[in-house]
Specification:
16 helices; elongated; three-stranded mixed β-sheet
Length: about 525
């Protein structure tokens, strides 16, 4: 319907006829309901007893996962407020790699609490100010919960294991996989920070996840350019070529008139000579293995095979860069005048066949800090979920080392946050005190959800958590058997990076306050 205003008695139309507009309390209710709906969609996946979701696309593709970011990414969400909750999960994933469900559930509960405040005529500005103040207090509480312990390998294994507990790890428990992830992190760890990009995860079906291994180097999915090329090269000299190994074409369209067999033979000989020169140039430079980002002509591949050179074509830019970093090679745009300093070296390059696929392993590179986690899965669904679990584990260990240590998991840090906020709320004047207390109630949804998913009564569990926290200073939900118990999560090795908690609080608060402040939704074609 068209929107109009009166000006000197004459209507002035501002919005088009087909504009749809929702204002005031109706707009707030609609946005809050959408945000809560998205949050509730992932709530049952939280914790070690969280359930999986099956996501089926229009084309019939199936994804089975309990990873919050993956679920929200695959869902077909159109409502703009709901999309803001998806952005919370996306931001959480990009920044720290884990805690996406925590952030989404917290954002949804903040909206639910805000809805009650709005019903009690608390102004949105007061809610926003109170939430921001409470978020500041929450960050203080998180800092107080950081463990004053050295981040040694044993502690980092616990962090990685905690992130994978409840996720699909196939036929092997989380601990051996966690040990592999910590080994990978330590391999690429520098003096100042971890180069996370130097760790790659490659999945391959055909074996159980217990066959997962750490490869010191890079794995390429490209196959040898010729069947007669060697499949194993030790002490390999490596070239990374950013070009095509085929007949060069001129920039100008031209036609050549050939009037005799001799002329045709000469033209073919010249073409063959050019192609042969590529192989000879690589052989003269002492190159054993070539990774080519462009195309390799079949005749060049044949010449290379005769020279005993292993070559791969159509290598992706990311893989070429990774191989160059691992082996110390420079990416070359020409095969002429190749200097020894431009080449890389690896202890072993081997080609292995897995079912119908062939993979190239570049191991023990001269500059090697790059490693690849070669994850195996009995089916594609298992391999995909294992990849998500391993990626999360790598990210949380990186976050623990680079961004401020670890805190107790299992809901213990959330109990401490809520307690700290409530203890400070009395000193806050005005109606925003109500919003601060509501924020604490919203944080309680996380341990309550953990308890419910573990088979406990969430109200009784919350009462016991608070009582144990007051008496012992730390309490969390520990899943045992068909239910759970309240105990110290540190004693059970359940730890989370502090950065995950901080990011969840900040991103959830930002999204919730942004939605609460909206009182007018205007949609038009």
């Amino acid at each position: 319907m068209a929107q109009s205003f009166q000006r000197r008695g004459q209507p002035m139309f501002i919005l088009a006829e087909d504009t749809q507009r929702t204002r005031g309390r109706d707009a707030q209710s609609s946005n809050i309901a959408a945000g809560k709906a998205v949050s509730n969609a992932v709530r049952t996946t939280l914790g070690p007893r969280g359930m999986d979701k099956m996501l089926v696309s229009d084309s019939g593709d199936v994804v089975i996962t309990n990873d919050g970011a993956t679920i929200l990414e695959k869902m077909d969400i159109e409502h703009p407020a709901a999309q803001m909750i998806v952005e919370v999960a996306t931001t959480q994933e990009e920044e720290v790699g884990d805690g996406t469900t925590t952030a989404s559930v917290l954002a949804g509960e903040l909206l639910a609490q805000a809805e009650d405040l709005l019903d009690d005529d608390v102004h949105p500005t007061a809610i926003v100010e109170g939430y921001n103040e409470a978020a500041r207090l929450a960050l203080e509480a998180i800092d107080e919960q950081v463990l004053d312990e050295e981040l040694d390998d044993d502690l980092l294994v616990k962090v990685a294991k905690s992130s994978m507990t409840g996720k699909g790890t196939g036929d092997v428990g989380a601990e051996p996989l966690a040990e592999t992830m910590v080994e990978a992190i330590r391999h690429v760890q520098g003096d100042e920070r971890i180069e996370r990009d130097d760790i790659r995860v490659r999945t391959q079906t055909g074996a159980g996840s217990s066959a997962t291994e750490l490869v010191t180097g890079v794995i390429s999915e490209e196959e040898p350019a010729h069947e007669n090329m060697p499949r194993r090269v030790e002490d390999a000299t490596i070239a990374v070529l950013d070009l095509d190994l085929e007949v060069r074409e001129g920039n100008v369209d031209a036609e050549y008139s050939i009037t005799s067999i001799d002329q045709l033979t000469a033209a073919l000989d010249a073409e063959e000579g050019e192609l042969r020169s590529y192989a000879e140039a690589l052989a003269d430079a002492g190159i054993d293995v070539a990774f080519v980002t462009g195309d390799v002509d079949d005749r060049v591949a044949s010449f290379l095979a005769k020279q005993g050179i292993l070559a791969f074509e159509d290598v992706s830019d990311d893989e070429a860069t990774a191989i160059a970093r691992a082996t110390g090679a420079k990416q070359l745009g020409s095969v002429k005048d190749v200097d020894e300093a431009d080449l890389g070296h690896a202890e072993l390059v081997r080609v292995e066949k897995f079912g119908e696929d062939e993979l190239a392993f570049v191991e023990g590179g001269a500059e090697a800090r790059s490693v690849t986690v070669f994850a195996r899965g009995s089916t594609e669904h298992v391999a995909d979920e294992l990849e998500r679990a391993l990626t999360d584990a790598l990210d949380v260990v990186t976050a623990a080392l680079d961004r401020g240590g670890v805190v107790p998991g299992a809901g213990a840090t959330e109990i401490a946050i809520a307690d700290h906020i409530r203890s400070e709320a009395a000193s806050i004047t005005g109606r925003k005190q109500l919003a601060v207390e509501a924020f604490a109630d919203a944080v309680d949804v996380l341990p309550r959800t953990l308890a419910a998913n573990a088979g406990m009564d969430p109200i009784d569990a919350l009462v016991e958590l608070r009582s144990t926290f007051e008496s012992e200073g730390r309490s969390g939900i520990i899943a045992q058997g068909q239910t759970g118990v309240v105990a110290d999560p540190v004693e059970y090795g359940i730890l989370d990076p502090a950065a995950v908690k901080r990011e969840a609080v900040e991103s959830a608060t930002e999204a919730a306050t942004m939605i609460v402040r909206i009182d007018d939704v205007i949609a038009a074609n």
